[in-house]
Design a protein that fits this description.
- With 373 residues, the chain is of the alpha/beta class.
- It contains nine helices and 19 strands.
- The strands form five sheets. Strands 4-17-16-11-10-9-8-5 form an eight-stranded parallel sheet.
- β6 and β7 form a beta hairpin.
- The protein is globular, with a radius of gyration of 24 Å.
């Protein structure tokens, strides 16, 4: 098993950076008005905790830099909050939010290169989030690459209530309060990160609320799949002990993430971009997300195992796939999943016991019994 410390460090190297003008298909994309040199970047995760983490991401081939989620009043407990990889591919964690405050990140972002957009992840009560959005709006004009704020709806925000992203009435009220002071300025993109949805009523319920909020520019789908449990056979105890359950990420959730991206892209208004997150560990995985309708993709679990070099590898693999298919830009295939043809309806079989009418003195083919299916 592989365990992480609170502040995992990634080796920053300019060798990992990929020049946007490199030969081959272009990975440039535009998400909610922000120009990304690559459609692949990091999600909010422990590898984006401290300034040196953000600087390593900034120097890498990632198309943007996302911070770890800041939540007012959150207290980290290193003894119980962990992230682990049971198999070197997937991850499980019970970490919660960043141990560092929102103000720390607003101080870090101006120290980056400004060559790519920044994603500032936040959570908290509606009033707290509204105040942070307004502070981010004041910061945005000073960041040359642009700024997006991602509101993390995937963890409990209100005591005694279900996860906000699943409680659609509460979510509608929450977003109303966040924006009660008015819309964000054009220089700031604001979006949300959702939990995984699993059935029709969840998709349509979430889409109705998100479409009803005119100030949202993007949706990130998905966060980890909650209440996962890995058992350490050697100790016969949960891998995250003394904690038990955690959020599952990596290749194991890739198909769930693709389903969420595809369904939300079909239901949300066109002005809301969808960012795919879940199991992006290869160029093929990134290609699938984009094909299903994502405007960009985020990496987390693969970043744990490889460090910031993962971006150059995934991008090289994605370019190879695009070149082999004759695509020169992401827009050539983005959202163009080939839907299967609707199955043709078969004629209903005759009811049991009712023979079809005879033809030329003989029973019709299949007559007599019916219900052969």
């Amino acid at each position: 098993f592989f365990f992480l410390q609170l502040y995992p460090r990634m080796a920053a190297s300019s060798d990992n950076a990929v020049n946007a003008s490199a030969e081959g298909p272009s990975l440039r994309t535009v998400v909610c008005g922000l120009s990304l040199p690559s459609c692949v970047f990091n999600s909010s995760n422990p590898f984006a905790t401290a300034l040196e983490d953000l600087q390593a991401l900034d120097a890498s081939a990632a198309g943007a830099v996302a911070t770890r989620t800041a939540c007012p009043g959150f207290v980290h407990d290193e003894a119980t909050m962990k992230w682990a990889s049971p198999d070197g591919a997937n991850t499980i964690n019970c970490l919660g939010y960043s141990p560092l405050p929102f103000e720390y990140y607003t101080g870090c972002l101006p120290q980056l290169s400004g060559a790519k957009p920044c994603w500032l992840s936040i959570s908290g009560s509606a009033e707290e989030v509204g105040a942070m959005v307004r502070e981010a709006a004041a910061l945005a004009p000073s960041l040359p690459g642009g700024l997006a704020v991602e509101i993390n709806l995937s963890c409990p925000n209100i005591a005694g209530k279900p996860t906000l992203a699943y409680d659609f009435d509460a979510l509608r009220d929450y977003l109303g309060t966040v924006f009660d002071a008015g819309p964000p300025p054009p220089t700031l993109a604001v979006g949300v990160k959702t939990t995984p949805y699993f059935y029709d009523a969840q998709y349509t319920g979430a889409a109705a609320v998100l479409n009803g909020c005119p100030h949202l520019s993007f949706v990130t789908a998905i966060n980890t799949v909650g209440n996962g449990l890995y058992v350490d056979v050697a100790t016969e105890a949960p891998l995250l002990a003394p904690s038990c359950y955690g959020g599952l990420g990596g290749a194991a959730v890739h198909a769930i993430a693709l389903g969420n991206v595809r369904r939300l892209r079909a239901l949300l208004r066109p002005s809301i971009a969808v960012i795919g997150c879940g199991g992006v560990d290869s160029g093929e995985a990134a290609f699938r997300h984009l094909l299903c309708g994502a405007s960009a993709v985020m990496v987390a679990s693969a970043l744990l195992h490889e460090g910031v070099g993962v971006f150059a590898r995934v991008e090289a693999e994605l370019r190879g796939i695009m070149a082999s298919k004759g695509y020169s830009a992401v827009a050539d295939f983005q959202g163009k999943l080939r839907e299967p043809a609707a199955p043709q309806q078969r004629a209903a079989a005759p009811c049991a016991g009712l023979a079809p009418p005879a033809t030329n003195g003989r029973s019709s083919v299949g007559g007599g019994g019916g219900g052969g299916d």
